[in-house]
Write a structure and sequence with these properties.
The complex is a heterodimer.
Chain A lengths: L1 H5 L3 H6 L2 H21 L17 H5 L7 H9 L22 E3 H10 L8 E4 L4 E4 L3 H9 L1 H26 L6 H5 L3 H12 L1
Antiparallel strand pairs in A: 1-3, 2-3
Helix pairs in contact in A: 3-8
Chain B lengths: L1 H18 L6 H16 L3 H32 L1
Helix pairs in contact in B: 2-3
The chains are: A mainly alpha, B mainly alpha.
Chain lengths: 197, 77
């Protein structure tokens, strides 16, 4: 089940259920990656700041390791004068007047062509930059409906992976009589499942 | 009779696509959900393929009815 959470279908592949493993891997990950790209790579982030809670992350987290960087970036950016790693990949948006490290302010400018040094209030002694605009609003303005569509895709991918995890741990949800009638594939696969468990 | 039904369905689909921007983006999600639902209910590849089509029809009909109701309410109100 842990493998199934980490990478969709990996639990099935470990159990020897190759067809389902590859199917889940391709289907769930392609929906997640499509959503991530449609949303400009900004729709998966972790934020629990008051008033800016990212509830979509509760569903997106179901995808496993592909959502883990978002949690790490959120922790890195939490506090005064902090900076997210990797140029802000999967980092939460910087709020109005949130002080960040100078280096991260420059990374934000590279990431958002609409941002300039004038959009920051600089405190040279402390090497802090405070954004005078709300980055999340900028993302919404830039991406428009793609932000919502990307969020929807990544949320659904995460939720579908919950079903995949259940299947990896406890087998098919429905009756397997049909499968047995079709050639006994279920019996073989289930025995490998129980062996792996 | 079948050709009439297919004309009606395609006309309805084109009308919906025209009235609801972004509806086409729901299709990959429907297909992916059908695959996952089918695969979590069956183990054998043939059974999964058959069930996938059934799930696709079910999900399409259910969501289509909901969308139709929302559109009707939107026209009416």
């Amino acid at each position: 089940m842990l493998l199934g959470w980490l990478v969709p279908g990996l639990g099935h592949l470990y159990q020897g259920r190759r067809f389902k493993g590859v199917l889940f891997l391709v289907v769930v990950l392609s929906i997640y990656i499509t959503g991530f790209l449609l949303g400009g790579g900004r729709v998966v982030y972790w934020s629990w700041k008051p008033g800016e809670q990212r509830w979509a992350m509760a569903c997106q987290a179901g995808i496993g390791i592909a959502a883990v960087p978002a949690a790490a970036q959120s922790m890195l950016l939490n506090g005064v004068g902090k900076a997210a790693a990797a140029g802000g990949f999967m980092a939460p948006p910087v709020g109005l007047n949130q002080p960040v490290a100078e280096s991260y302010g420059r990374a934000m400018m590279r990431r958002n062509p609409g941002l300039s040094e004038d959009d920051f209030r600089r405190q040279p002694r402390l090497r802090l930059w405070e954004l005078q605009r709300d980055e999340l609003s900028m993302w919404h303005r830039q991406l428009g409906r793609w932000f919502e569509i990307g969020t929807l895709y990544t949320m659904i991918a995460g939720m579908l992976n919950m079903l995949v995890i259940y299947d990896a741990g406890f087998g098919p949800l429905g009756s397997i009589r049909d499968d047995e009638r079709r050639g006994g594939g279920a019996g073989k696969s289930n025995s490998s499942t129980s062996a792996a468990d | 009779m079948e050709s009439l039904a297919s004309i009606l369905v395609s006309t309805l689909a084109v009308t919906l696509l025209d009235r609801v921007p972004g509806l086409a983006f729901g299709v990959p999600i429907l297909i992916a959900a059908s695959f996952v639902f089918a695969a979590t209910h069956h183990e054998h590849p043939d059974a999964i393929r058959g069930a996938m089509l059934q799930w696709l029809v079910w999900l399409g009909v259910i969501l289509g009815v909901v969308l139709g109701l929302v559109l009707l309410i939107g026209i009416w109100v």
